[in-house]
Write a structure and sequence with these properties.
The chain is α+β, with helices and mostly antiparallel strands and 183 residues long. The radius of gyration is 15 Å and the shape is globular. 35% of the residues lie in helices and 18% in strands.
Length: 183
């Protein structure tokens, strides 16, 4: 997959042919994230998974997660899916380009780290995973670990590939890292 923003970033049309994460995979990912957060004892989190259009598929908030984390987790997943890359990379790119996220005209976008795009085995954005409840950098690490942990739990084949990504279930990968500036 060539590095860069998905050609339709910010303007994904719903309907037939738009890739989407399966609900069972989405549920598995939010459960993996909440389980990881519970295991490390560093505090509760909210985890949301959206489909390729950015609409919510699965959500789970662990005990002790701040209420604000509900909306923020979904916004992180939405942003990652719509831009086709992780939200930390979106923030770095915006800072380097001098652009503001508000220029995109979508109040659901956020530049807080903790969202990763999910790519199917054909290189298409199939959704996004967003984590909130801790420091943004910790949310990001947890999102990446949840994707890797979920893959290990279901015994994925590892056939999915994405630049800087981690495979999920043999069908999906998380896109992490910098890509070119949004246009």
């Amino acid at each position: 997959m060539t590095p860069g923003v998905a050609p339709n970033a910010g303007d994904v049309a719903a309907g037939p042919g738009v890739p989407a994460i399966q609900s069972t995979d989405a549920l598995g990912l939010v459960r993996a994230a909440v389980d990881l957060a519970g295991a490390d004892g560093a505090g509760g989190v909210a985890a949301g998974v959206v489909d390729g259009t950015g609409e919510l598929v699965a959500f789970l908030r662990s005990d002790g997660a701040p209420l604000r984390s509900i909306r923020i987790a979904v916004m992180k997943a939405y942003t990652a899916a719509r831009f086709g890359r992780d939200t930390a990379a979106v923030a770095r790119t915006l800072q380097a380009s001098g652009r503001a996220l508000a220029e995109y005209g979508d109040r659901r976008f956020t530049a807080l780290a903790g969202g990763v795009a999910l790519v199917d085995d054909r290189g298409r954005i199939a959704g996004g995973l967003g984590i909130s409840g801790r420091a943004p950098e910790d949310d990001h690490e947890l999102a990446v670990a949840a994707v890797a942990g979920f893959r290990g739990r279901v015994g994925g084949s590892g056939s999915a590939r994405a630049a800087g990504g981690t495979g999920v279930d043999g069908r999906l990968a998380a896109v992490t890292g910098a890509r070119e500036a949004p246009r």
